Amino acid sequence: MEKISDPYTVPYRRLVAVAGAGHDEIELVEFYDCIGGAMWSRHHYRQSPLVRDARCVGPTMRYLLSEGAVDLALEGSRFPAGIAGVERCDDELAVTYVGLGGGGVGASGSRSRAGGLARAESDPCGGGKRAGSKVWVPLRQRVLIGVDDTDTPEAGATWTLAHTIARGVENDEDVYLSHTIVQLYPVPFRTKNCVGIVVEFASRTPAALASRFKALLEEHTLSGETGMAVYTGFDPSPLRPFGERVKRGEIDPGELGRLRDPCLDLCMAGRGAVGAVAAIPFYTDYEEALALWDGPG
Fold first, then answer.
1. In terms of residue numbers, what domain contains 264?
2. Which residues of the chain have pLDDT under 50?
3. How many other C-beta atoms lie within 10 A of the C-beta of residue 128?
4. Which of 26, 104, 203, 242 could potentially form a cystine with 131 if both were Cys, beta carbons 3.0 to 4.6 Å apart?
5. Which tens digit of pLDDT belongs to each residue from 87-128?
6. What is the CATH number of the domain that holds 205?
7. Are both 283 and 184 inside the same structural domain?
8. Cα-flanking dihedrals φ and ψ of residue 41, to 5°?
């Protein structure tokens, strides 16, 4: 039987902080080890006035945060844990957690021992104690890479290629966060299912990341019409109207030239560029991304 060295601590696998230029453009991404603990945290942490949204995305829990410091009036069972402080400190995000009892164990031991931290301070925890921690997480930028048209009727699949390249380029500086398949309008020249892909990273080196991704895509694509687009920014919603039009019908590729977004870079301009750009604003919006919008809507 395996010996358990610390039976009362469940560290988070990794904490990642994504930020934009705006005051409230802060997202904390927690890679959890125990889904029960993560769901419990989401349920209670969203009561904190610093938490604007909390959602589960695959193996992560994501908190959309506002900067500030609050004195949380914790109460067992009703509000036993939360986020009490959020502060940008140069190129790091300082987050303060606090909790009661088991919530204190999660706020202290689980977060302070997570991977990906610059440093951490924590209280003794366990039993019925009130305990917490302050962790400093390196700040990163959101990088969304859209890909379309990499296969042929005989071989390949865009969703698998995008994922394997994302796994191939991820490192300590560029954390792979998500993969979303986006159903597009079934145009006549599709291979079969007509989907675009968007992969999401939290990056400290966006340009180098995009360059590595492009090199591997050029090496492994089977199509001469591959499209690749990169959006470096916190919120790609300005591209949503374009993406919705591509989901509803075939559009002229020339319309790409009318998009004026400084965060968007068209890296490979084959016919698939339309689907690559269209996929970007649907990242992690899985229900809408996968829906087939084949009517006027």
1. 149-290
2. 296-297
3. 10
4. 104
5. 999 999 999 999 999 999 999 999 999 999 999 999 999 999
6. 3.30.70.2200
7. yes
8. -60, -45
